[in-house]
Design goal:
There is one protein chain. This protein is mostly helical. The protein is built from 22 helices and no strands.
Length: 509
Amino acid sequence: MGLFGKSASSDSSPERERVDSTIPGAPPLANPEKSRWERSWPTIACGAGLFSDGYLNGVISSVNSILALQYGDLWTNSTARQNITSIVFAGTVVGQLFFGWMSDHVSRKWALMASTLFLILFAILSTASYGAGGTFNGLIAAFTAYRFFLGIGIGGEYPAGSVACAESTGELKAGHRNRWFIMFTNVQIDLGFVVSALVPMIVILATTEEHLEPAWRICLGIGIIPPLSLLYLRLKLDEPEEFKRESMKESGTPWLLVMRFYWWRLFVVSMIWFIYDFSAYSFSTYSTQFLGTILGESSPLWKQFGWNTLINFFYLPGAISGSFISDWIGPRKTLAIFVLLQGCVGFLMSGLYGILSKAENVAGFVVIYGVFLALGEVGPGDNIGLVASKTSATAVRGKYYAVAAAFGKIGAFVGSYVFPIIQDNAPNATRAGQDPFFVASSLCILSAALAMFALPHIGQDTITFEDLRFRKFLQENGWDTSLMGTKASHEARAAQVEAAPVDVTMEKH
């Protein structure tokens, strides 16, 4: 028994790429009878909601800076900054686990719809946050509570949206599937981060620093638009074909067999995601504060937001180029190589931080920091969700993805608390900037090793391959796989059998 329940060679062989598309008994993934738009729009509808994750998580950095300017010592001396930043991650973990279960046991489509409605409702309430009697503490309490429930909606986008998106890419042309998955998942998150930095700059220039209350509410309110725009497309979605055929919603889940088959792989994927989010979300959340320290307290807020926009823009070339590289050399190698390079650049930033942190060198800081972020997107940013969605069978993909993604958000939650502690306990201002990069870069090296030596190869038809591999394992252990599939798929198969012509051969005597 190998690391993943079978001999390691069956999973990690470089020849798998050529074998996947000719698996005996597997139906073709790409349906030539559908138009390009018919094959593409489910991928777009399922994955594009992750823009909200990027925007609503990214904009809180700027909102924190606006609130700090508006409320001064009331904000600085309270725990509100950490609570508002971190509570959304706690909600996201709850949402990922709940909607992960729902997407496997109820419906991919309706899990996605429920999470979208959650997002819309609590994005509205967050924008309209108001404390009893107009007090600061009441405002923060309400805002924190709404951010938690907003996190639940964001969490639902991961297992429900990304899993359905991965299954929908099976109908696209082989050789292009990874890039389209990435384009409508991680690239959407990164686009959300870029817009979340650009919007506050424009809003502050429009309202000026004399009107901070409407400024931060407008910034949050714009986050309502993306999920609203997807409601109609998602309402038209059908369940993915893979889900109809492989679901265990009618048969029940053999938990012990699932854990025996996937425990190690899930552990590896979860650890890589934890490490990535620990650094990525923490850096994005505190990037405005980094710039504020470098530019000085006298720097206008719009200028800090402008530099922050440029920093976040570096996510996009990394994410977009990484989507193509993932198809060319495979997700495992892409993840390992580029997270290793990210670690090297992070060590360089840590060593040069004393020079880069001077106000006259802010452009150099932004460029090197931007390269650091871009490499993270080419590697784990683009590929960890792809790995999580394609290294398990369809029957348990929602729960498997949810657990891995939840570990990622726990990493983000931990990082949002640990980074301020690292900075607060640094002996001087230079070390306060150096130490987070040193910690993050060390973890990048660990991620590279885990990806290269503990993840399987992932080909274009890995979803089909994994379903067959899992079915075979269940059959070998006495579990009846004929029970798999939705009720509708069973009825459709029965109707096909009844409609099939009977060939009766008359024997002459």
